[in-house]
Amino acid sequence: MDAQPPRGTRDFPPDAWRLRDWLFSRFRRTTEAFGYELYDAPVLERRDWFTRKAGEEIVEQLYTLEDKSGRELALRPELTPQLARLVLGMGRSMPVPLRWGAIGQCWRYERATRGRKREHYQWNLDLLGVDGVEAEAELIAAMVHCMRSMGLGPEDVVLRVNSRRLLGARLAAAGVGAAQFEPVCVLVDKLGKVPREALLEQLGGLGLDEQTARCALAAAGDEGALDGPAPEGEGDDAREGRASLDRLFERLDDYGVAEWAAYDPKVVRGLSYYTGTVWEAFDRKGELRAVAGGGRYDRLLSVYGGKDVPAAGFGFGDVVIVELLEERGLLPDTTRQIDEYVAPFGEDGLAAATRLATALRGDPFEDGTPRRVELQIEPGGMKKALKLAARAGARRAWLLTPSELANGQVLRKDLETGEQTTTPLDELLQARAR
After folding, report:
1. Is 180 or 328 the better-scoring residue by pLDDT?
2. How far is CA 9 from the centre of its chain?
3. What are the tens digits of pLDDT across the range 64-108?
4. CA 141 – CA 314 distance, rounded (Å)
5. In this structure, which long-range contacts are made by residues 84-90, counting pairs with CB atoms below 8 Å and at least 24 apart in sequence?
6. Residue 116 region, left (φ>0) first, then alpha (ψ -120 to 50), else beta?
7. pLDDT computed for residue 53 by the predictor
8. Spatial CA neighbour of 316 closest among 122, 32, 131
9. Most exposed: 131, 156, 241, 305, by fewest CB within 10 Å?
10. Inter-helix orientation angle 196-205/181-188, to 10°
11. Domain span holding position 146
12. Are 305 and 342 part of one and the same domain?
């Protein structure tokens, strides 16, 4: 039997689990710091929630199946449609604004390469009910807050920001029709990732002549400054798009995160439901895939037959960020560590050691971080006890040697300093019982 997990998936033995738990703790703490609430939904979902637009890359990447009743199901490739389902189910009872977050496993059948897995975990934050760029600013600030908590700075990460409204006006000026805008955006999103000639060929497949296709790529590839002079003939949509980005950067400055962000017209986001501001986070060196991305999606609910509400959100994956942290030497020490190691010497000491370990763990319903206590359930000698305590990463070892135990004492050894003391066993049991 092949002992490896299926291609593109991962096992999480204890060392990998500890790293994942550390990363998720940063996601959870940021969620709480900004006043958001966590939710979750099934990994298995009805397929039609993820097939909004034919031609979207994500549709081609679905893991699909049919259950025994003939229902078409899929493993979720993203969390946002499930957020839409939950919000639609709430109807008029939805609180406004709604601040929700999630950390969920997602699946996409795609080629497994560096920074890309077929399964990954994604942290989402979504803000519904706020129409202005204040929503995007708060979400970007939350993303930066989380990265800072990992030790990253603006010299490590840049958030590339664009406006689909501004891009739409530029593409329209290049000759792209309204019906072609969304599929063109899907291709523009591949600028820098796919050879230009291949994109021109695919744009031609959408009905664009060669000149229009080249003008479209040129319009999306122009990295001119937002505060530069507006192109001649720029319409209201383009002006409003530029103005909204200007306001966004002002708000980011208020949050103290403006140095993390930069305007980049190539950023489109491949999903069709985005309607306004979009952004993606990249490492400054440009060596990795996008760390995270998000944007405004005001028309998502109507795709599923509901009434639209202003909405914005982002997704932050667990794969690329770990690669970036590793490159920067910022991964935490995730070696195993416990607080107390309790070791009996001989069968006679096992009962007393069990009572001591139970007392050291304390009340499971007390507030605060529980004390981590490992009991050596196979008695042995001093050498074995200290070896196992060191392997467990214990701070202290409680050694119930026959001589100490005969006097009602326990030998306590600080494994960091080597200091040894003796303590009456009854005092320990009574103290913890109180």
Report:
1. 328
2. 17
3. 999 999 999 999 999 999 999 999 999 989 999 999 999 999 999
4. 11
5. 84/49, 84/300, 84/301, 84/303, 84/304, 84/306, 85/41, 85/49, 85/304, 86/39, 86/41, 87/128, 87/301, 87/306, 87/309, 88/301, 88/304, 88/305, 88/306
6. beta
7. 56
8. 122
9. 305
10. 160
11. 14-327
12. no
Find where tokens 């291709």 sit. 187
CATH of the domain at 96: 3.30.930.10
How many domains does one find in the chain? 2
- The C-alpha angle with vertex 281 and arms to 275 and 287, in degrees rounded to 5, equals 130
- pTM of the predicted protein model: 0.88
Q: Please give the single-letter amino acid code of residue 179.
A: A
> Six-digit token pair at 9?
């998936």
Domain-located, residue 3: no
Q: What is the mean pLDDT of residues 240-254?
A: 94
On whether residue 1 sits in a domain, the answer given is no
Q: Which two tokens stand for residue 349?
A: 């000491």
User: pLDDT digits over 232-242, tens only?
Assistant: 556 777 888 88
Burial code (b: 16+ CB inside 10 Å, e: under 16) for 214-229 equals ebbbebbeeeeebeee
CB within 8 Å of 14: residues ≥ 6 apart? 336
Check whether residue 272 and residue 351 sit in a common domain.
no
- Please tell me whether residues 164 and 84 are part of one structural domain: yes
Say what the pLDDT of residue 52 is: 67
